[in-house]
Amino acid sequence: MELRDYLRGLRRHWIAILLMTLIGVGAGYAWTLVQTPVYTAGASGYVASRQTEDIGTSTLGDTLARSRVQSYLDIAGWRSVAENAIEELGLDTTPEALVERIEVSNPADTVILKISAEADTPEGARDLAEAWISAMIVEIDAIEGDGSRGSAAVTVVAGDSASLPTTPSFPDVQTAVIVGGVLGLGFGIAFAMIRTVSDRRIRAAEDVESKTGVAVVGTIPIVPGLDDESRLVDPKESGSTGKNGTFAVTEALRALRTNLQFMDVDHPPKTIVVTSPLPGDGKSTIACNLALTLAAAGTTVVLVDGDLRRSMVAKTMGLPGGAGLSDVLAGRAALAEVLQRTSRSNNLLVLAAGSVPPNPSEVLGSERMHTLIADLTKHATVIIDAPPLLPVTDGAVLTHQADGALVVVTLRKTTYDLLDKALDTLRKARGRPLGIVLNKAPLRGADATAYSYEYRREYTPASKAKGDEVPVVPAGTSTEVPPVLDDELEPETTPAARRGRRS
Asked: pTM of the entire structure?
């Protein structure tokens, strides 16, 4: 994986990262609420000798006081000092526990002793700091004097009294929240990286090409304007006339059409199977829209519903589906009787699936099917909507008889394992994968298509006045039905169509 893949993973899972960060912040704050608050108060004293009028004696006393600072610093941590403080304050604790709540320090080159005391209340911390200095004086008088107050030649004189703390020193809410947020952010990033590395779903065209060796010939975006009730787009619409955001789909289909036309300039594919690894990838919708897009360019197109198990073409195109391909192969109907026109294009003819046979794979792999495809290909481009490759072998059988297959996969749903199995099924049947079509690609987000459809304003003509639109037919293009399809029978008047309407 490259750096861009990890960056996409972070962008893809940004909600999870944000959520875990907020959880970490909340956990840090909640931790502070369950902790017992600790207040810290400070008091200070200085080491001094008895003052005399004799200057020499006073100087000697100051030198002696400086020499006692380090010793008194050690005495401050004695159990006996803690016992004196417990007696003075009437505390219910042990000397060892009380010593742990005291910290005594000596600033460099001074005779100052700083006492820092901790307690669970502000008053307790203040009283303990002041009592500790008094307890040290008592201990020093007992060691260097006769035990009476002030009998030691050098002692500790109480200096600045302890002030009442207003906020607890522990827990530190700000620090806890920051630490919790950082930990949550770290867990979120780790989660995103793990998901990115372990994710086997298809997300980018370049990754598909590098892993399968098959080109991505089309990326069809997902837009809210297309649903189960309206699956077709108007191939003639432009950015100024597109509705419900279907312009993006129209442009993607045009790009797919161009890629197919230039796939082999000398021998472009004439019989194209549209299939997918599993049901639900949108192969039927893409087959119908691709046929309309090819027909809009002036190409004569025959759309064949080769999915004899779960036919969708007739329903998608809004045509009756009573008789069709299976009836032609069984000899129950002539091709001209079951071919249906659609009002969406004069260049498009539709061959529905027809009756469901008991052995679809054998029917589609028959010599009659091969002959039918060959006859249709002489006069038109044939688009065959085939069943999925993995559940049944029908799609592979049809691909073997065609110029190749477009494999439709759903972005962010189909896995590389499924795609590899589908391509392997095609190769085993000696079928040619023409390319892969990524369906339902988002227009925004980490997995958005590379082409931004916002540029349509720069590349679409200004809207024409109502009534000024004139259909344009490319020069030399014939809109007549080729000889093999020249029966000008209206779909509603053909015997096969009447049988389908009654059924």
From this structure: 0.68
